Amino acid sequence: MRAIRRFTVRTVLPEPLAALAELASNLRWSWHRPTLELFASLSPARWEAARRDPVAMLGSFSPEELLTLAEDEQFVARVDEAARDLHAYLTQDRWYQSLDAELAAENREPAPRSIAYFSPEFGITAVLPQYSGGLGILAGDHLKSASDLGVPIVGVGLLYQFGYFEQSLTRDGWQREDYPVLDPDELPISLLREADGSPAEVTVTLAGGRPLVAHVWKAQVGRVPLLLLDSDHEANDEPARAVTDRLYGGTPEHRLHQEILLGVGGVRALRLWSRLTGAPQPEVYHTNEGHAGFLGLERISELTGTGLTFEEALETVRAATVFTTHTPVPAGIDRFARELIMSHFGPEGAGLPGLSVDQVLALGAETYPGGDPAVFNMAVMGLRLAQRANGVSQLHGAVSREMFEGLWPGFDAPEIPITSITNGVHAPTWVDSRMIELAERHIGPQIRTEAKAWEEIAKVPADELWATRRQLRSALVTEARRRMRGSWLKRGASNAELGWIDGILDPDVLTIGFARRVPSYKRLTLMLRDPERLRDLLLHPDRPVQLVIAGKSHPADETGKRLIQQMVRFADEAGVRHRIVFLPNYDIAMAQALYPGCDVWLNNPLRPFEACGTSGMKSALNGGLNLSVLDGWWDEWFDGENGWAIPTADGVEDANYRDDLEAAGLYDLLENEVAPRFYERDTDGLPQRWLSMVRHTFASLGPKVLASRMVADYVRQLYLPAATAGRAITPDRARDLAAFKGRVRLAWPDVRVEHVDSSGLSDSPQVGDAMSVRAVVYLDGLNPSDVEVQVVHGRVSPQDLITDFVVQDLRWAGAADNEPAEGRHVFEGHLKLRRTGPFGYTVRVLPRHEGLAAPAELGLVTNA
Ligand SMILES: *Cc1c(COP(=O)(O)O)cnc(C)c1O
């Protein structure tokens, strides 16, 4: 029978247990072990049945059972204790508050009072499945660490009715997708309401002036509120209701609607949030990947309503906006047809007041060589709307500077204003409690809060470390068998056929994990390049390895699904199925068992397409060793002893041949380095050399891979300067900066370096010698104070290119009054030769203004 209507009856907790509701609704439980244990202890069976979801589990208790529980004084005391702990966590001063004190002591401006963090997905816990992969998990870890550090962030995202899909397999290994409906009333979120109790709303406008109305839900992530917009609203027609149906679903138009709701609606939700709660307005806006970029348009529109021009509003918005790019893979970058943007922001749609469609289109135009004139690029818009931008590892920063170089013509990649902050992971979420307890016993409680405490890992005795590693491996074996049985039952097998599953995997065999989304650059099947060789590794008589594999393919990606099928068919073979498993439905819950249980974490992307990668960091924090291509974070922190680098065949054009080479490198490492070291035991049965690598991994990577390090980096390197710039840019200064940019752009084509003299060097210059440089520059109508004239010097290549250069400003020395025309100026200065070898220099002119954050910001430069 089908219900004609559904609604959810909320649990009413007796007064002595009232605090349980708060503990269940603040998602801090998802990383706070004592609170998790409190819920689990209520009834371990129901806890598992409710898939470790406190809200669902409380709902499974009858009023009578709850009354009985309320009489259990011991339990009530534990609830009170947990509630007190939560309140202390929510109100005590933390790192950010001490940073503020530090800034005040140095007479510097205070840190921003509020920072908005926009992301299309958030992976916080398995019970709030609003993520598809790394981007979402990272956003979740960002919020959690911000909460731990006391950083006043407000998250902004969408609430997807079906979340991301659940993956299962058909009999022959083809991916199946299921989209269970998520009932918001059963999720750990609450609806924002007006003072009179009616649901609060946000409205945005789509093509043709159609309104799209959304509810706003709030998830509480420790101290951090996360606002989620939901278009499943009675006022919308069916297509409008479906805008937030699923992550990354459907047509380009569907995605555009989602992104308009996220960006434009998200800013409106923040205004609503401040109005309802008195929370301060954000001083900094962080756009996590291009999808959320329309937030900048809405803010420009707001500002033009206060009397600023478009250009002035743009400067104001840029000053306080941070943009993070997350992928160098072209397919990962969001692009729309221009027509689609025109129909939504043009005159036939209501558009946004204060912005013409041409102004919008210009922001996303690919105006560089190779750009597509028919396309609107969200990453490009993100870079134009933010004065500060970053990639997510050092290598990715460098790759991004090259990739977007064309937006700053005239500048070489090193000066492109895109910096990098390497991702990190939230340790309390990802480190298994057994590992953290072991470390705590020997190192002390500071292991939970002080990154550097990992450097003391040597205090943990080898036998105990090894025993814990075995425990974790063994737990994974049990979990993998359970999941495999579930998977085979779904694939149509009966329990009677599945006896073999109790014998798969072995808690004493070297265990290698590989789990990730399945876009082709991640090369799920690289290990299958030479199936015979893989088989030999799995079945080695003395030094076998076993593989645990997982990953979802995007529903529309047939190639990815074929890769999964290829993998599954291999793993299904009777001869190897005890040593290699594919576990369907990779999600946070699986990940939390998978990373700790693996001895080695394998990653073999096509370099340099993995912007950062974070799964290997989670493995490292549990004592796993990384075996990875030198891409993303591993390129930066592999030190020769904390794991292994799979050699890459960069530059080999033939993709097949390159895969062959890299796969062979992988097999060689496994056979000759990894497995021998794992199985080499001393007289006590301990793999001492292996354990010293594990220890070195903890000590060298432990302090670096933490999301608390990452969030502190964002605060110091990007949020503080953005807040300062945002405060400085009053309407008058915005006017001044916009006018400056206009003036400079107009004059620039005529600006030139007319003449450069140098003097003071002998015929055979040596290190330490000084030379004087004098340049005559034509500035058209610009003032000498509008420009910076610089001498750029350094090593020169045989082609006369200056590499590895140093930049030095020249001083204005007056108008060149003996020259015939006006607008000529002399700039001069001295420079010292600091290095031997071929040396070269040139002189260049750049715009200068105190409102600029980087020399290349305007993309204007004139070289001699
Ligand atoms: C960490 C994590 C990811 C991201 O891992 P990458 O190394 O960036 O591919 C994806 N999915 C889940 C469930 C994760 O926990």
Automatic annotation (TrEMBL):
Pfam families listed in its UniProt record: DUF3417, Phosphorylase
UniProt keyword Transmembrane helix present: no
DUF3417 domain boundaries: 13-128
Listed transmembrane segments: none
Top-level lineage group: Bacteria
Cofactor entry: pyridoxal 5'-phosphate
EC number: 2.4.1.1
The reaction(s) this protein catalyses: [(1->4)-alpha-D-glucosyl](n) + phosphate = [(1->4)-alpha-D-glucosyl](n-1) + alpha-D-glucose 1-phosphate
Keyword annotations of the record: Allosteric enzyme, Carbohydrate metabolism, Glycosyltransferase, Pyridoxal phosphate, Transferase
Name recorded for this polypeptide: glycogen phosphorylase
Organism field: Kineosporia corallincola
